[in-house]
Amino acid sequence: MSQAARAPALFEARVVAGYGRHFLVEDAAGSLYEAQRRGKRGDVVIGDRVRCRHAAAAQATIESILPRTSLLMRADGARSKALAANAERMVVVFAPRPAFNERFVWRALLAADAAAIEPLVVLNKTDLDTEGAGARALARLAKLGYATLAVSAKAAPEHARTALRAALGSASNLLVGQSGMGKSTLINLLAPQANARTQEYSTRLNLGRQTTTASRLFALDGGGDIIDTPGFQAFGLAHLEPQLLAAAMPEFAPLLGRCRFNDCRHLTEPDCAIRAALSAGRIEPARHAFYVELVEEMDALRRRDPSLP
Known about the structure:
Blueprint: H1 3-6, E1 10-19, E2 22-27, E3 32-37, E4 49-56, E5 59-65, E6 71-76, E7 79-85, E8 89-94, H2 102-114, E9 118-123, H3 133-143, E10 147-150, H4 157-168, E11 172-177, H5 183-190, H6 194-205, E12 216-219, E13 225-228, H7 242-248, H8 273-279, H9 285-304
Parallel strand pairs: 3-5, 8-9, 8-11, 9-10, 11-13
Antiparallel strand pairs: 1-2, 1-4, 2-3, 4-5, 6-7, 12-13
């Protein structure tokens, strides 16, 4: 018998949890396997659909990655990090307490656009929004055409669960947000088995509490799933090409191609359609300032590292 004939057959699975180079994959029957990527390539991310080979009892090696429909990235300087693969929707969660960073939300939405992932912005903890900062931030995004939702996972859990479940549907959803925005509470509302599943993931990966810093995928009742990502405070966009920024901003996009110069960067150039709209009050100064901040940030990064796009 040939060596190929003796090798265990390949099976397909999905990566449902991971920490470093350790992963859990789930096959079509719902069985979990501890898995490692063959070789030392760090190219596997949560949400990947992979081909695996049985290695031992409940263990497998990841032989290859099936084609992805999407890959969400964030990057700080030359360091890029893939957050998830094959997500169809990114749910960006923010809340009034602790204080949120509105620019984090805006950056996450640009990353979603670059990855061709549908965005949904969720304001959580509406009961704590006593000064209305969260509502104003949400209204600004709704005016730009983004899908938005306002909930309070703790004060009105049934409404939050019903509204979110209707919005998520049967898609593969990715949850992102700064630390403290209430993502874990939302996950537990949507997937009541999440706590038990997290403990199972932790035990199987033999990493104990470290898995709280890892991404995890949970099935949703009625179809679809949701990927919980660790909270982080910055959303770097160094992986994006600068010319994509303006096209990814809803209020800028309709004006592109109307400037005098084809390579207009919408900063100080004469006869710029975007700056004219800014002067006319059709673009908010804070949004243009955000765009300028990103362009200048990317210019500085590329001066330090010319290999960046």
